[in-house]
Amino acid sequence: HNNEVLQQVIAFVLSTKNDELLQLLGEYASHHKEAFDALLATNRHYLHQLDQGVIAFDALEHGAAINARNKEGQSALHLATLNADKKTISTLIARGINVNIQDKYGNTALIRALEKVLYKDKNEVGRDIAQQLIAARAQLDIKDKDENTPLIIAVQNKDLAMVNYLLQHGACLETFDAHMKTALFWAAEKGDEAIFDVLLKQGAQVNGVSYPEENTPLMAALSNRHLGIAQKIVSQEEVAVTQKNRYGNTALHLAADNSEILKAILALYPQNKRLEAVMVKNKYGNTVLHDAAGNSESLKTILALLPQNQRLEEVMIQNKYGNTVLHDAVMNAESLKTILAPLPENKRLEAVMVKNKDGNTVLHEAAMNAESLKTILELLPENQRLDAVRIQDNYDNTVLHKAINDPEILKTVLELLPENKRLETVIIKNKFGQTVLHDAAKNPKIIKSILELLPENQRLEAVMIKNHDGRNSLLHLAAYNPESLKAVLALLPENQFLDAVRIQDRFGRTVLHLAFNNPELLTAILTLLPENKRLEAVRIDDRYDTTVLHMAAGNPESLKTILELLPVNQRLEAVRIHEERGEAVFHDAAKNPESLKILLALLPENQRLQVVMMKDNYGYTALHWFANAAILKTLLGLLPENQRLEAVIIQNERGETTLHRAASNAEGLKTLLGLLPENQRLEAVRTKNKFGNTVLDRAADNSECLKTIQALLPAKTDYSSENKEQVVLPSNKDILRIPQNRSSFFSIAQENNTGKDVLHNPAPMLGPLH
C-alpha cells in the first residue's frame, strides 16, 4: 500500500492500456498476487471514476495513485479546479498531488483556473484557486498546446491584477507563445496600456518579431490603432523600425495615417535614410506615400522630404494595381490639394492622367465625389481641363459616364469647362456606343442637368447622336420614359422640335413610332409641335413603310389622341396615308371596331363616306370586314342616310358587296337593310358579283336570311333588271322573278329540290327551320 512507485506504474499501465506490461507486472508480483490484484482493482476503480468526472477518495485510501489521469489526461486536481472546488483542491494538495500535471492539451490546473474558470466562466473563484495553486508552488511558465503561459493568458484577458500577481511570483517576461509573441507583444496587440506599462517597467523587450506575421510590438500596436502604446514604444531607445512584416509593411507604412507617430518614427532614421524609407514598397507595391494618402498632414511630412524636382516622379509611382497616391487620395479633397498644389502647374495634368489597371484615372475614381472632382479640375490650367475630362478608361468611359447618377457632379464638371467645349465632352461614346446622355435616358433630372449647361443651339446635336450601330438616339431611349422625353423636348428651341421628332433609328422609327402605344406621351410630343407641322411628323415612314398612325390604329386611345391633335381639315389626309398602296391608316383601323368608330367620329360628316368607300389591296372596304351587326350599325349610323346605299353596294375585286358577305348572317342583313331607305333596299340585294350572283342567290340556302330579306323589302315594289321603272307586283314573293343568270337563285333552289315550292309557294322555305 505504501509503494508509491508501483501505484504510479499501475496507474500508467491502466491509463495507456498496455496489457503486455500489465502481464509482466503480474508475473513479478506473483508472490503477492492477492495484494497486487487488490491494488490493481483499486486503481481500475479510481480511473473509472475519474473518467466519469468523480474523485474517489475511498480508492485513494486503499492505494490508488493520486496523480493518475483519466482518458482526457486530467488528474483529480484538474477536475476539482474545473468544478471550482477549493476545499477538494486543498485536500488534494495536502495529500501531495502534483500541481503541475498537464492534461492531453498541455493544461495545468493553474492554466485551467485562469483560462476556463476565471475568464471563460467569469467566476472569481478561479482567481482564488490560481493563488492557491501558486502558493502550492505551481510552476508559472509551463505552456499549454498553444504555448501560452499563465502570464500570456492573463495579458490576453487584460487582467492587470493577475499580471501583477504572476510577476510578483516570478513569471518570466520573455517567454514566447507558438507565434513568437511575448506578454508585452500581446499587451501591444490588445491595447491595454496599463498592463503594457507594467511589463515595460519590468524590463520587457520591445523589439521581438512574431511568426508568421513578422510583426514587431510597434507594428501590432499600429495595426490595431493602439496609438498610445505605439507612442510609448517609439520613445524607447533602439527601437527596430526597419523591420518588414510578411506583407512588406514597415512601421512607417502602418503609421502613415497618423502624422504625429509618423514624424516620431521618421526621427528614428538617420536624416539621409528618411527619403529612402518612405519610398520602400510593400507586397502590394504601396509606398508610405500611398498609405498616407488619406491624411494631408502625413502627406505634407513625406512630401517635405522630396526634392522639388522629384515630386512628380514619386507622386506617379504605381502600386501593383496601377494606383498612384492620387488614386488612393481620391476621396479626400484636402489630400488631393496637398499632392497637386506643390507640383508645377504644367505638370499636374500628367499626374492626373495616369491610369490604373482598370484604365481609371484619378478623375474616374473621383467621379462619385463632387468636392474631390472640383478640387482636381480647379488645380488644372483651364486649357487642360477638357483633355482631363475626355480621358477614357478601358471601356472608353469618361468621367461624365462614371458620374452618371449624380446631377451635382455632372454640373460641377461641365461648369468648369468652357461653354463652347461642353458638347464635345458630352457626345463622347464609350465602347458600347453610349454617350453620357444615352446612359441618362431614364433619369430626367440628369438629362436636364446636362442639357441646361449646353448652348441652346447645340442641344439638338447632342440628343441626335446615335449609339452603337446607329440604333438609338437619346430621344428614342427617352421615349420609354415620359418624364425623360418631356425633359429633352422642353430644353430644345421651339424651331427644332420637328427636326427632333423626325430623327429615325436604324429601323427608321421616330420617337412617335416608339410612343404609339402611350397616349400621354403622344400628347406630350405633338403638343410641342406647331399645329400645322403635326401631320408632317405623323406621316414619317419607318423602314417597313409604317407610320405612327398605322401603328396606333389598333389602339383606340392612341389613334384618338393623334387625330384630335391634327387640324380638322388634315384628318382625312392623315387617315388616307398610303391609300394608293391599298394600305391606308383607315384600313388598319378598320380591323378594330372601336378604332374605326373613333376615326369616323373625328372626321367631318361629309368626308366619312369617302373614307368608308376606300378599298384595300383586295378591294375590301371597312364594311366588307365586319359581319357583326352591332359594328355595322355603328359604321352606317355615322353616315348620312342618303349615302348609305352607296357604301353598302361598293364591290370588292370579286364584285361582292357588304350584303354578299353578310348573306349568311341574318342579323347582319337585318342591320344593313334596316339602315337603308326602304326604297333603296331592293337595289342593294339585286346587285350582282362577278359571277352573276345576287345577295338572294347567296342567301338561298338559309331560310332565316331569306325571311329577313323578305321582311325588309317593300311589299309592292320591284326593280326589273331591264329598266328602272317601278312595277307593282301582286305580292312580295314576286321578288323571286328578278332575272337571274345560270347560277341564279332559281338554279340554286332547284339543286336543293326546293324550286317548285319556292316558285309556287315560298312560305315553307321562309318559315322557321326544323
TrEMBL record:
UniProt-listed PROSITE patterns: ANK_REP_REGION, ANK_REPEAT
ANK repeats: 72-104, 146-178, 179-211
Key words of the record: ANK repeat, Repeat
Keyword match Repeat: yes
SMART domains per the UniProt record, alphabetical: ANK
InterPro entries listed in its UniProt record: Ankyrin_rpt (IPR002110), Ankyrin_rpt-contain_sf (IPR036770)
Protein name in UniProt: Ankyrin repeats (3 copies)
